[in-house]
Each structure stands twice: as C-alpha cells, then as structure tokens.
Amino acid sequence: INLSAVLEEDFTWWKKNILFARAPMIEPVYNLEIFSDASRTGWGVFCESQRSHGYWKAEDLELHINLLELMAAFFGLKCFASNKRHCNILLRLDNTTAIAYINRMRDSRYEGLSTLAREIWQWCEQREIWITASYIPSKENAEADYESRKLQPETEFELDNSAFQKIVKVFGQPEIDLFASRANAKCRRYVSSRKDSGSIAIDAFILEWKRFLFYAFPPFSVILKVLRKIEYEGSSGIVV
C-alpha cells in the first residue's frame, strides 16, 4: 500500500505520541471556556468577560464559512490561551462542521479544513493543551456573535501595498508594524490595539521602539504622541 506524504507524517506523529495523545476517559475539568463565531464581516471571540474581534483579509472572504468558523476558533485560542500550558480547554462554536474537525483532529474529505485542524492541534501539542469543541446555539453565543459582526471602523485603515513597497525600496524592510491587526499588518511581527490572533503585544506605546526598525501608520489622533515618543527614545523608523 502506498501512503501519501500526509498519511506518512500522521503515522510518524502517532508513533511518537501514542502514549500521550489520548482523550480523557472521564469528563475533564476545563480550565478555560472560549466562545468563537465568524461572519462575513469578521471574527469574534469571548472568554471570561474578555472579548476581541478582527476583520478578514480580502483573500479570506473567498473561503467557505465552515473554514472561517474554524479559523475563528483558532484565533480564540491564540487570543486567550497563548500563555497557557498543561490544561484542558473547551471551545464553544455554533458550527457543527468546525466542531467535528476539531474533535476528530482532522478529516480527509476537505483538505483546507483538515489542514487547519491539524495546525490547531499542533499548536496545542506544543503547549500540552487538550481541546474539546462543543455546540452552542447561535442565540446563546451572543458575545462572540456580536464581536464577529462589528463593522470595520474608519480607524482600521492601511497604506496601499504598492505604496508600501515603494517606501521599503527606499528605506529598507521594517521589522515590526506598530499599529496594525491581522487584517492589515505590513510586517510579520505587529502590535495591535486589542487582543489579536497574531500580534506580539497590545498597545505600541508600552514597547521600546528603538529596539526595532519600525513601521508606523498610526491613527491621526495619536500622531503627536508618536512623534514625542520617537524624540524621547531617539528611535528610528518609518512613519506615514
């Protein structure tokens, strides 16, 4: 029997983790309960009175809603469990397809969903986190649903990519985007104004900017504060 590269990788993983990667025999005590939801506007997450949301990139909008729901669940983990270790987490979703892919760890029918489910479990494995997904009716998932349907504010703007590339050719590639979100970050490392699935920190003003060659496209309301911080620290970067 010839196995695909994906199956060979799966068998290798199970040989290594067979003694550890097993579901609890009894109902676990969950250390954290994370609610998530996705809409065509964006994604929303809620956990222990904390909430966050974000907007989709242009390419995300072409994806099926089932995949967006699975992405939202992953973003919830990244927002609320990045610093957790050795724990059980309950994920609450109103999408049965996403739930099935999480609980089965993967499924061969839809490659995109299967690949993302695998990525979620690998992320959890690195932190020794065991996750379980369960269904919650949409009307009871009010907080996450509300966050996912927030309209994109006027402050969620970005410089056109072609203009950004022209700047990079002159000044070099910046290391970090100080005022961004997953949807509009120009650098792999970025700082957001709220909990975000991929940001390295919340609130750019708490960081020491002179450690980086930074890129900043700040809201107009904080431009003076930005200039004062640059002058005070003696930092160097690209400000638009």
Protein architecture, described:
InterPro entries: Hepadnavirus_pol/RT, RNaseH-like_sf, RNaseH_sf. It is a single chain. The protein has 240 residues and is an alpha/beta fold. The chain has two domains: 5-149, Nucleotidyltransferase, domain 5 (2-Layer Sandwich); 161-239. 35% of the residues lie in helices and 20% in strands. It has helices at 5-17, 65-81, 96-104, 111-126, 142-148, 161-171, 223-233; strands at residues 32-38, 42-47, 50-55, 87-93, 129-135, 176-177, 189-192, 201-202, 214-216, 237-239. Strands 3-2-1-4-5 form a five-stranded mixed sheet. Strands 8-7-6-9-10 form a five-stranded parallel sheet, with no helix packed on it. Strand 1 and strand 2 (42-47) form a beta hairpin. The longest helix is centred in the first third of the chain and has 17 residues, at 65-81. The chain is globular. The model has no long low-confidence stretch (mean pLDDT 88).
